[in-house]
Design a protein that fits this description.
By secondary structure, this protein is an alpha+beta fold. It has one domain: 2-Layer Sandwich (Alpha-D-Glucose-1,6-Bisphosphate, Chain A, domain 4). β5 and β6 form a beta hairpin. The protein has three helices and seven strands; from the N terminus they run βαββββββαα. It has a seven-stranded antiparallel beta sheet, covered by helices on one side. The longest helix has 34 residues. It starts with a strand and ends with a helix.
């Protein structure tokens, strides 16, 4: 299942890239823990652990950075027990504002494949609404950070 969405943020591209990529649990409504395991200087290959809480269900993922091209692209793959995720963010400079686009692909496992087959249309709608809420939270977070915080 593929989900895609975009939002414009009133903040320069370099700052939005950094604020989006670092400390995801500070702006995400779903990610409750996000900790690095191994950080590579070039970004790609860095590993992390993420815990999400969605509709009362807690899930843990192991992740790896697959693409890191500041300030334009950031891609990750996450492995979980019920499904794996590929997520890619792209950032477009709009002259002091930034358009952030996220593309996510869910790869279900086991019984989740059956559920996705039967109810995929409804799940896709729910995922689009969840992405919209995540983007609104990201926008609020990025636009509320002071200049001092943006250079730390």
């Amino acid at each position: 299942m593929r989900t895609e969405g975009s939002i414009e943020i009133d903040r320069p591209i370099d700052e939005v890239f950094r604020l989006t990529s670092e400390n995801v649990s500070a702006w995400s409504l779903i990610v409750v823990e996000d900790e690095p395991i191994e950080t590579k200087p070039e970004g790609v290959g860095s590993t992390f652990r993420t815990v999400t809480m969605d509709r009362g269900q807690k899930m843990e993922f192991e992740g790896v950075v697959t693409r890191f091209e500041p300030p334009r692209f950031h891609g990750i793959e996450m492995t979980g027990s019920m499904f794996d995720l590929e997520v890619e963010y792209s950032f477009e400079d709009l002259g002091g504002r930034t358009r952030v686009t996220q593309v996510s692909i869910v790869h279900p496992k086991g019984f989740t494949k059956v559920v996705l087959f039967l109810f995929g249309w409804a799940m896709n709608k729910a995922n689009c609404r969840a992405l919209d809420k995540e983007f609104q939270s990201l926008k609020k977070f990025c636009e509320s950070q002071s200049e001092l915080q943006s250079v730390e």
